Amino acid sequence: MKTLYRSVALLGLASLSNFPAFAQAPVQPIASIQLPDSTNGRPLLRIGLNLGLTQLYGDLSTPNFGFGAGLNASYPISSVVAVTLLGDVGSLGAQQSDYYNSKASASYIQGAVGGTFNLTRLIAGKPRQITTSPTNGQLSPDNFDTNRDHRNTKSNIDFYIGVGLIAFDATASSLTTGKLQRYTNGSGSHKTQSDNVTARGDAGTTATREFVVPLGLRYNRMLSTALSIYADLRYNFVASDKLDATRENDNSTIDMPLGGAIYGKTVLSTNRDKWASLSVGIMYQIRRKSGHNRIRITDF
After folding, report:
1. Could you count the other beta carbons within 10 Å of the beta carbon of residue 182?
2. Number of domains present in the structure of the chain
3. Domain span holding position 284
4. Disulfide-capable partner of 134 in 82, 143, 245, 251 (CB 3.0 to 4.6 Å)?
């Protein structure tokens, strides 16, 4: 009898399992969603080329427009900070009619290393990546938006500063006659010892080399994940009073006993020369290979 009851009970349970109300709910599929890691999407290297106008700010009161070109490379070490290399080449000019009666022109090549700081990211914070819920009840990766940035990251403003060397050759000529008045490099120019006076090496150095501190602002606008355009405004502080081939309060020329060569000792009490540039450029971004963390999600 017990055997009979046991058989009937097992048969009843087997029958009930065929009804939907008592059937075990199927296990929801598990979706594997790829979420970007902390470095995914961050450029590995940025390389930019820019062209623009330059102006010289020295002892001659009226800056003239010159032309300059620049190459820069940045390696991001975080979402805010990048190590930057700057290279520039171009021409500078300025003039003044009273006292000096001079028009200066200079050609230069400059290199510097420094840091770039993303002001937009620094102020607004790092963009958050939002994962949305499925909309159609299916756990498909297509239903999860893991890359949507709800902040405007198509443009940003960078501040950068660096230190480097500028090599230049400058001359100043008469505004009225065009005759050469002063020059920075000639047969007697030479490298100097630390006192900036004692000659070192052979004479006839073709370029004056001085320390320079560039600082600037750059506005970037992305065109795609690889390309962006930018506008760059920069001011360069040069550790010299010779960039315009003119010393402060000294209008001597090659026709005077003191001559017109202005290489040699820099007077520490005089103001240092500066130059500025406004340029536009295009930047190419080499991006990291995608690395992903995986998260398993179930729908309850």
Report:
1. 25
2. 1
3. 43-297
4. 143
